[in-house]
Amino acid sequence: MKTVSLPNASDDVARLLDEARRDVVVVQLADGSEFILIAVDDFDREIARGRNNPRLMALLESRAAQTASLSLDEAKRRLDL
Length: 81
What we know:
Strand content: 5-15%
Largest sheet: 2 strands, antiparallel
Strand order of the largest sheet: 1-2
Order of helices and strands: HEEHHH
Number of strands: 2
Radius of gyration: 22 Å
Helix content: 40-55%
């Protein structure tokens, strides 16, 4: 993820950013390219950092590939409950 500072945003850009504070904005260029503009918070930043962590992503992928599961009774038995 890249952060770009806009110390002197034009009025048009300022209006877009103000709108993005309230709702997701799709910006469409004349060539048909589209971009999503959305306000971020700390949770959004943490998600982005997690996606850039190869060890975390490998762990999540290996967990997602697991197909074995335990019944509630088996889990209770293993935990001596």
